[in-house]
Amino acid sequence: LIGPGLPLLQPAWMIVRSEMEKYLWELHSVRGYQRVWTPHLAKESLYETSWHAGHYLDDMFSVFGWTSKEKFFLKPMNCPHHMQLFADNQFSYRDMPVRYFEPATVYRDEKSGQLSGLTRVRAITQDDWHLFCRSSQIKDEVKSITDVIKAFYSTLWMTEDYWVSLSVRWDDKEKYLGWDDVWEQAESALEEASKENNLPYERIEGEAAFYGPKLDFMFKDAIGREWQLATIQCDFNLPERFELSFTNENNEQERPVVIHRAIAWSLERGMWVLIEHFAWVFPLWLSPRQVIVVPVMPMFDDYAAEVLKSLRDSGIRASWDFSTDWLNKKVRNAEKMHNNYILVIWEQEKTDWSVAVRNYRTKEQTVESLENFKSRVLEEINTRSL
């Protein structure tokens, strides 16, 4: 009833997505980024200015306003909207770089045969970041972005074997926006930044975006499959088309450079890759089911309820199995649902205010006080340990 390529997220998956977004924001909020919001649609004139109407129109959904009698398009990307945000301000060179973040959903009319799980969908939530800087600041900004990419994927254990595609134009230049000198400047800036940041890059012709060259980060998951995830795109063209400017030291108007970048590419693709990478057993900070409390018999339900409340009050995602099944079945059901920790409650645990802990990932079994368990689990969550 909703349509192909338009995913719905159940509560458990919303937790995974929210934790990814929260971590991405933590990595950027300390680096001067500001959150913004833009609407899901815009008039055709916006995309005529950005040149999406000339190069991307077949992949866009159109909407006609019967009351307004105007034609709108669902946005296929956020960058034209962010150009308008920058244009609405009077910036000087002291304000540069200006950095925007918006985890926004965009819409692309992908062909039915191209749709695939969460990796290729029509409603795409990008961890979309745009920064506006001077040409002289490109290398430093690329280094800052690269540091974020490495931090994010190191946490996910995916930086041991990666490479970077320096995606540039090829000889057929008609499908690209802008003059040759602008492209040469942008490609040189990204290549120099790659060298200075010791990135394992290869120059790949014909893979550039229509508005500028880019660095595509290629990561491998736990079973060796390669995914294009993070991207850094250098753009001298959209600032020109939107006539963006800031006031420089000589009180003259200077054109900024825009760097488009996404760390997880899209949250949908990111979640799909993580499902495969972790084989459904997420690290504790990402897991929607961190702890489950399993009382052996109904006579221990009162204590199990106290343990559950204590865990939830501490911010730990916890549930409990209050069924009358035998213990082995309860534990097996808990493992099928990929709960990271299974707490078995017996008479001794009730007496000692302790818990019998089963670690689903390592299969290790221990008995410890409830307070010690909470402290250990919270540290594992807060440090985003694997």
Structure write-up:
With 386 residues, the chain is of the alpha+beta class. 34% of the residues lie in helices and 25% in strands. Strand 17 and strand 18 form a beta hairpin. The radius of gyration is 25 Å and the shape is elongated. It contains twelve helices and 18 strands. It has helices at 11-29, 44-50, 52-55, 79-87, 138-155, 180-196, 237-241, 267-278, 301-313, 327-336, 347-352, 370-382, and strands spanning 34-35, 41-43, 62-65, 70-74, 98-107, 123-133, 162-168, 201-205, 214-220, 226-235, 246-247, 253-254, 257-262, 291-295, 318-320, 341-345, 354-359, 365-369. The chain has an eight-stranded mixed beta sheet with strand order 1-5-6-13-10-9-7-8, sandwiched between helices. The model has no long low-confidence stretch (mean pLDDT 92). The longest helix has 19 residues, at 11-29.
